[in-house]
Amino acid sequence: MPQVQVLTGDPLMLESDALLIGVLEDDGRLKGVAAKTDKALNGQLRNLREWGEVKGKIGEVTVVHSLGLLPPRRLILFGLGKSNELDAETVRRAVGSAVKTLNQIGVRHAALVPPETDCLTLPDLARAITEATLLASYRYNRKSSDDEKPSLERMELVTTNRRSASEMDKGVQLGTMMAEATNFARDLVNAPPMEMIPTALAEQAKAVAEKRGLACEIYDERWIEEVGMGALRAVSLGSDQPPRFIVLRYEGKVDAPTIGLVGKGITFDSGGLCIKTAEGMLEMKGDMAGAAAVIAAMDAIARLQPAINVLGCVPATENMPGGKAYKPGDFIRAYSGKTVEVVNTDAEGRLILADALSYTKQRGASPILDAATLTSAAVIALGPICTGAFGNDEALVREVVEVGKQVGEPIWAMPMFADYRELLKSDFADIKNTGGRPGGAITAAWFIGEFVGDTPWVHLDIAPTFWSDKDRYYFSKGATGVAVRTFTQFILNRAKG
Ligand code: BES
Ligand code: MN
Ligand code: ZN
After folding, report:
1. Whose CA is nearest to atom 14 of ligand 1?
2. pLDDT value of position 30
3. Dihedral through CA 485, CA 413, CA 459, CA 339, nearest 10?
4. Is 122 in the pocket of ligand 1 (CB under 6 A)?
5. CA dist 19 → 64, 114, 205 (Å)
6. C-beta of residue 229 within 8 angstroms of C-beta of residue 355
7. Distance (Å, rounded) from C-alpha 390 to C-alpha 396?
8. Does the beta carbon of 379 sit less than 6 angstroms from any atom of ligand 1?
């Protein structure tokens, strides 16, 4: 991973492999560094602009070689879009596109002049640039040769002003922690399901705890059975891999509230006996993306040290159709004591979340946020653009939606009309585990909501967003690490009060 740093000095005197300069779509005037560069290059930049080769659109990247006329070997013009649409997300997209080019053409040392704008504070601007640099330089590679390895080693944000430098440095620090945690979650999700089994996920959590000084409790299959987590246990029965219940604790302030974070940790979802199609199973190693988000957010939180307490809980198991597998028609008793009729073994996520949510509530956490790749219905409803939010407290849902905006993880609030709850009525048990295909994301949310009671709670269905089918701005194909930044920022905001 590259290092992002702030440097005070003249960017044009700095010997780098590439100097990045942002260009606006609606303002063609060359100012500051761009004007000086243009002069040194005999009007080359102005020409590119006038000939229409450089338009300034987001995602546009133009490489200009300086041919010895300037210390930087190349100038990279990257589009910033329209000046009135400039915000943290457009900066991330613009810089992300540029950084992908840097990594393709083998740039190791780049410098960037942060664009001048009133739309963003300096720390926020530096944070967005840092996040984009680190997220766009991520690549999950299992090829036998690594000649496609991202080349970027160092990115310097250059400013001539010392005060700005220290402002920007705050943003760089925060952005680095956010992006590194996001990339860590991406690694956990991209890892093959043969490796990322429940015990391995627990080891990952333990490693984070040891590295960052968090408390960590890992419970095994015997404990799960003894305490009565019948729903988690039922799901685990069809697998040869033992389940784990993982707890991470961050204590930032005595007597401060404890916020609960819960993540679905199905390390592979075959559907169980209600088995999925081959195509439907392809991305199901990522059915622990919620768990990855919790573990990675705990990592970022432990580094950022907010004055608040956080309890992270992850139920981890495979969902497999082995000979001992739970079956449609089974009745199970959840940790809360409620009985559940199993209608479909592929609706396993809500079962393990039921136990994890009642446990988190029992340990006194409030509010509770969960992230889960819960339903394909959410994918159909929302497409690949945003995460669905559900909950029992409108103000809390709104708060989480706002946090999503703040960090660039779009979230949309979904309706929770009480009539949907009717669809989960069972003739034999307290509740059944599916309510049919229509409104599937909402009935799933109602199911897990049964186990949090009145504790303020928001559920994020990240099935739409945990995976990217193609390279896009600062993301490449594969895991996105979604919810890490939303969780972490939520905690930071709450700690600030
Ligand atoms: N993990 C899946 C949901 C999923 C699907 C996540 C696609 C990401 C991408 C979940 O366990 C599941 O199988 N849900 C079923 C529920 C149904 C049986 C009621 C679904 O959504 O089809
Ligand atoms: Mn499933
Ligand atoms: Zn699942």
Report:
1. 375
2. 86
3. -170
4. no
5. 10, 11, 39
6. yes
7. 10
8. yes
Q: What is the C-alpha to C-alpha distance for residues 120 and 83, in angstroms, rounded to an integer?
A: 11
Q: What is the CA radius of gyration of the chain?
A: 24
Tokens of 37: 């560069």
Instruction: Report if pTM > 0.90.
Output: yes
Does the beta carbon of 318 lie inside 6 Å of ligand 1? Answer: no
Three-class secondary structure of residue 51 per DSSP: coil
pLDDT at 146 over 80: no
What's the mean pLDDT in 213-242?
A: 98
- By the 10 Å C-beta count (0-12 exposed, 13-18 middle, 19+ buried), 153 is classed as middle
Q: Is the CB of 378 under 6 A from ligand 1?
A: no
The pLDDT of residue 147: 74
Map tokens 């009935």 to a residue.
Answer: 443
Rounded distance between C-alpha atoms, residue 486 and residue 407, angstroms: 6
- Catalytically active residues are 276, 350
Q: What is the mean pLDDT of residues 322-344?
A: 98
What pLDDT does 418 receive?
96
By alpha-carbon position, which residue is closest to atom 17 of ligand 1? 347
- How much of the chain is in helix, strand and coil states, percent to nearest 5? 40, 20, 40
Residue nearest to atom 13 of ligand 1 (CA): 346
pLDDT digits (tens, 9 = 90+) for 61-94: 999 999 999 999 999 999 999 999 999 999 999 9
Q: How would residue 148 be classed by pLDDT, with cut points 50, 70 and 90? A: confident
CA–CA separation, 388 and 386 (whole Å): 7
